[in-house]
Amino acid sequence: MWIKDLKSNSSPDIKIFLIGNKSDLEDEREIEKEEGEELKNKFEFDYFIETSAKTGKNVEEIFVHAAKLLYEDYGIVNQKKKKNKLDEAEKMKLNKDKVNSKKGEKKGCC
């Protein structure tokens, strides 16, 4: 239920990570890695990873992956795409203006 609340009360491009902790306690595992992957796929999360706060395993990886996703969505790559779309829109407008101005021109001498 909280996943639906999160998705309905947030930006449509929200990034959701599923993070399993205490991976260093393998003998006390309650959820298998495969179950985590299934949940990620079922709820369409952006990322799943198992970590250990005690050993630091994969902790940095979470932040690196988050930064990459944000960069892809809001960084230079996206800015270039937006600029290209604006350039294309401007070209279309110029072409339309050119066609419209030609329609208003009188041809011939009469």
Describe the 3D structure.
The longest helix is centred in the C-terminal third of the chain and has 29 residues. The protein has one domain: P-loop containing nucleotide triphosphate hydrolases (Rossmann fold, 3-Layer(aba) Sandwich). Helix 3 runs parallel beside helix 4. Helix content is 56%, strand content 7%. The model has no long low-confidence stretch (mean pLDDT 80). The chain has 110 residues and is mainly alpha-helical. It has four helices and two strands. It is elongated and about 75 Å long.
Give a nutshell description of this structure.
This protein has 110 residues and is mainly alpha-helical. The chain has a single domain (2-96), classed as Rossmann fold, CATH 3.40.50.
Structural class: mainly alpha
Q: What's the CATH topology label?
A: Rossmann fold
The CATH architecture name reads 3-Layer(aba) Sandwich
Low-confidence stretches: none
Summarize model confidence as the mean pLDDT: 80
How much strand?
5-15%
- Total E-strand runs: 2
The helix/strand series, from N terminus to C terminus, equals HEHEHH
Assigned CATH class? Alpha Beta
Q: What share of the residues lie within helices?
A: 55-70%
What is the end-to-end distance?
Answer: 75 Å
How many separate domains make up the residues?
1
| Main sheet record | 2 strands, parallel
- The general outline is elongated
Radius of gyration, rounded? 26 Å
CATH H-level name... which superfamily? P-loop containing nucleotide triphosphate hydrolases
- Put simply, the count of helices is 4
Neighbour order of strands in the largest sheet: 1-2
